[in-house]
Amino acid sequence: MDSMITAAARALATGDVLGALKRVALREDAPALALRGIAMAQLGDFDRAKPLLRRAARGFGAKEAVARARCVVAEAEIALVSRDLGWPAKALDVARETLEAHGDRINAAHARTLQVRRLLLIGHLDEAEHALAGLDATTFPPAWKAAHELVVAGIAMRRLRIGIARAALGRAERAARLASIPALTAEVDSASLILNTPAARLIARGEERPLLLADVETLFASKTLVVDACRYVVRDARGVVSLATRPVLFALARALGEAWPDDVSRDTLVARAFRAKHADESHRARLRVEIGRLRKALRPLADVSATKQGFKLAPRRARDMMVLARPVDEEHGTVLAFLADGESWSSSALALALGASQRTVQRALDELATDGKVQSYGRARARRWMTQPLPGYTTTLLLPGPLPSD
Amino acid sequence: MKTSAAEIIQEYGPFPGAEQVHGVTFDGHHVWFASGDKINAFDPASGQTVRAIDVAAHAGTAFDGQHLFQIAENRIQKIDIKTGRVVATIPSPGNGGDSGLAWAEGSLWVGQHRGRKIHQIDPDTGAILRTIDSNRVVTGVTWVDGELWHGTWEGNESDVRRIDPKTGDVLESLEMPQGMGVSGLESDGGDRFFCGGGSTGKVRAVRRPKR
């Protein structure tokens, strides 16, 4: 390394970003471009950082493969944090292999963590979990360990494995404190908050109470038939029936679930399912048809039987029945139900699944996004939608040192 | 050109509080090396650190018998070895792209890293007296017995090479093992080179081939 690069790298390492920039501002050689790119990224100017890192990667000679790979990793991290997923994942993979081959273990692991975070972000939980299994975080420096544990916690929360999530967050918190990066500590704190904030509302026998994620996990494992209005499914410990594409059937199931063990009158059911104020004969005929469909759909889990004035549900295996709803009943519940699986959806796929027009779905998504309930990434046709972030994709940049002598 | 594997006689460090080695020199008793915010001296017989001078130290280090010369950013500081005080400063020829530094025959010799050059400069004014082109990046420079040697380090490849001071032709190369880099270079006047090991924080003694 030359003198000014050393001085700039030292300034950057001590957090003196402007000092680093000042020293290499006018230089166009690869190490200077790389330092400028990292500095701009730390200042949050991703649009400037990306081309600088790209030019740096090109500028490093064939013999400086490690420096080049680190630039690629830095660029990938910036893309991830700015939710730009058009970035080629293949290049990151090649960079990771280069780093591994040259014994740069920490940055190779960092590259893999970025891959996992990307998979999580695009909602590929199985792949993310698989890739995560190949990582041993025990020797990571604290900041990297914290980011890693956040990913572990994020996957566990989506899978409703709250014990695992809690343990991972505990480790993340300790690591973040060791790293003493305030932004990282804040990320861990907000992630932990999710575990202590009501995630759902339980409705049983006319009473309601809020549930934490951990309670939801317990509920799903118990001998209770749950009419789950967060995901538009009916489930017990052994089976799940999805009614997400059948909103009328779900509305009936929910009404029956809320009244259990009592029955529900035909009028009430008509009002709930068809939003009709008064039930006339055609409504009653339609109700009979829909109840027949519901009976067929729920057959593995529950029976729908007629009573004198209406209908009631009878669980097959479960001893109890409850309704799980979002903390606040809201519009566009069906859209949220599809997104509740943690996967990412295109608006056209949602429209297809919901049997609604793309325009309707788009309007719902826009409203939900305005309320901060969903988020999107990507542009135009590549745009994907997800529920608000659970932990796993920190916005804190950890960035590899770009230079070969680091 | 004669090529052979570098024979590493000994490794020193890493030294506490000095994460990287940027420049190396030898005052006849102790090896001095630049580690960013100070120049450290250790005894090559025991490996013990004996002294440190707090001064910006980002690249090459040299010794003229009385003073240490130390590159920091885009200047060369002249430091009184007794008091540790900076007594003069001259601009560096590579304007911050400077890497190695050596003292010989009344001149300073400065490596220009990516410029792949070695400049001979006037130690009082910094004026460039002449420039030798190398075909590799220059990371350390030293003179011994009328021979000009410099270090190179690109990615995983690094060597210590003797070049013709007139033409820049490479006469001899001692190749370092894979992944072991030379970030600073100084001869002890005998059969050893002291080589900075960059981010490993080590200084290595490499045998100079016998004539």
For the biggest sheet of chain B, the summary is: 5 strands, mixed
Rg of chain B over CA atoms, rounded to whole Å, is: 15 Å
User: What spatial order of strands do you see in the largest sheet of chain A?
Assistant: 2-1-9-3-4-5
Individual helix count of chain B: 0
Which of globular, elongated, flat, extended, rod-shaped describes the shape of chain A? elongated
Strand content of chain B: over 45%
Q: What is the residue-mean pLDDT of chain B, rounded to a whole number? A: 95
The percentage of residues in β strands of chain A lies in 5-15%
Order of helices and strands of chain A: HHHHHHHHHHHEEHEEEHEHHEEEHHHEE
Strand count of chain A: 11
Name the structural class of chain A.
alpha+beta
What features would you describe in this structure?
The complex is a heterodimer of chains A (406) and B (211). Chain A is of the alpha+beta class and 406 residues long. Chain A is 56% helix and 12% strand. Chain A contains 18 helices and eleven strands. Chain B has a five-stranded mixed sheet, with no helix packed on it. With 211 residues, chain B is mainly β. Chain B contains no helices and 21 strands. The mean pLDDT of chain B is 95. The interface between A and B is medium-sized, with 23 and 33 residues.
Short description:
The complex is a heterodimer of chains A (406) and B (211). With 406 residues, chain A is of the alpha+beta class.
Which labels suit this protein?
heterodimer; A: 406 residues; alpha+beta; six-stranded mixed β-sheet; three-stranded antiparallel β-sheet; elongated; B: 211 residues; mainly beta; five-stranded mixed β-sheet; four-stranded antiparallel β-sheet; 56% strand; globular
